[in-house]
Amino acid sequence: MNTGEDELVAKIAKTLSQGSGRRSAYRRGLALGVGDDAALLIPKPGYETIPTCDWFLEGSHFQRHRHPADSIGWKCLARAVSDIAAMGGSPTYFLLSLGLPKTHTGRWLDQFLGGLRRASRQFDCQLVGGDTTRNAKILINVTVLGEVRQGRAVLRSGARAGDLLFVSGRLGEAELGLQRVRRGQTGRRDPYVNKHLYPEPRLALGRWLAEEGIATAMMDLSDGLSTDLARLCAASGVGAKVEADKIPKPNLSVAKTRSQRDLTDLALNGGDDYELLFTVMARGARRVPSNFKGVPLSQIGELTRERRLALISPGGRKERLVARGWDPF
Amino acid sequence: MNTGEDELVAKIAKTLSQGSGRRSAYRRGLALGVGDDAALLIPKPGYETIPTCDWFLEGSHFQRHRHPADSIGWKCLARAVSDIAAMGGSPTYFLLSLGLPKTHTGRWLDQFLGGLRRASRQFDCQLVGGDTTRNAKILINVTVLGEVRQGRAVLRSGARAGDLLFVSGRLGEAELGLQRVRRGQTGRRDPYVNKHLYPEPRLALGRWLAEEGIATAMMDLSDGLSTDLARLCAASGVGAKVEADKIPKPNLSVAKTRSQRDLTDLALNGGDDYELLFTVMARGARRVPSNFKGVPLSQIGELTRERRLALISPGGRKERLVARGWDPF
Lengths: 329, 329
Prior knowledge:
Distance between the termini of chain A: 45 Å
Number of strands of chain A: 14
Order of helices and strands of chain A: HEEEHEHEEEHHHEHEHEEEEE
Strand content of chain A: 25-35%
Oligomer: homodimer
Low-confidence stretches of chain A: 20-24
CATH class of the largest domain in chain A: Alpha Beta
Helix content of chain A: 25-40%
């Protein structure tokens, strides 16, 4: 009695359930999984639910012939999970909406599901539904549900003038990786290519900053520091002063042939880093270590009463910091 | 500090929040709405969460030049909400993922949001997030979260041999409407066109059947009776016997020039009706009224131990009922 779509759904559900068997559905609050009109989830008492969704589209976010199917599977979940990290929460469940050409329901789909399954295990986030359809271009939309202890989520709007501004990791690395992938380099040994293809949302860091009450505001960097910082400042009703030489950039010795100015532009405007941008009260700054589980944490500036974004050059010159990150429109 | 995408998100959030002000965010369990990395929802104690999502794509599910923008806004939410009705639940929140051509961010978007806002009010389902991107074709994906009292949801898998099979409404009407829309008739006065463009998910009926414990299994009819009944039977491990002349069909006097056989095919295989298909224990059948709040309820057959789908013709001849509904693959 099966149809083509039903077989595809069964394949997806089967592949994604492999290897997550050690976690009991009961413990995770899953009353009913894939296969009915919808799943049934039992929320954990004392926790809030965090819903988020993300497009991941051929032509806009990846190229069919450049990006390995496995990395598309990993990244479509990783980038949605990053929004949960940015609230200080933990992902729990996801829904997968797939639009595929008929030619991509075999080997390509297997590799895609392989990457997605690895991400699902790594982030402890279980498939509970979705929708599939046929489409000439590959269309992906992922909804992730997360949870956070009631009242503990860190918002974009909590920063105050005088708070210090921090970022995790090194910015611009994923953009460097994208430039290499566009030139046909997709070897995972290259750290920049790897960061572009297989980003790691900063879940442990986000949870720690939220649980310890260290961060006053937080968001993830997906569209570039210059664009995302403007959003955090607008939400908090403050401005910011960023010191160019404090921004953690790709390591020059590896990213050769780049001037310092080029690297600053890359770090300010490159997208897809999925690092965390967060603010800390000045007196709490000593609680922020220089790295957290191997991820460097850098103070790059501070928030100001004056609602402007300023960039301080290494020579001390102050210029306006303009949002030049990713905008699809 | 705004960018194009930020302005678009602000417009969507503003339009969708109009008119839902009478419901307090506190009462609805919404701790944080649109505008941060994600929303924060406080689940209602004693209730399960129902997550579901649906594609609604130009070219597959609607035609840009045939379907009014307002109906696309209404229907993208209505069809996702129908999955919540099919579980016996109530919708609470939704996420809207939009991919739009630059040419469609003005007047078209306004009309689309108008239809979506009416649906959002009608179904008492509030926007709490989403994602927007630019795309040559119009892409829509809607995630709906619903709630149902713990243990009360009605699944596809609960039917047993001997249970009676019911449907709401009249089947095939939306397919008739689609045929008219394809010929350029989009007047809402035509009941079939109206049903195709502005379907009404059977929320009150689904809730009543679940709360009263009347339905043993339930699903919504989106891909056509012949295809969806096969799914319900597979989930329940039973077969079914359907009587052709008991299937509620479009009214012949309105849908002229159709033979009885044509109408049966339409009712069996036409998609997009969003009626409910449900099963009831034989001894509970007298509790099912002939109509519920103006929607007719019809017993069309029964479930059988033998795992086959059979159609009984008006003359009593038995033939195999083949799944010929909508399948994108």
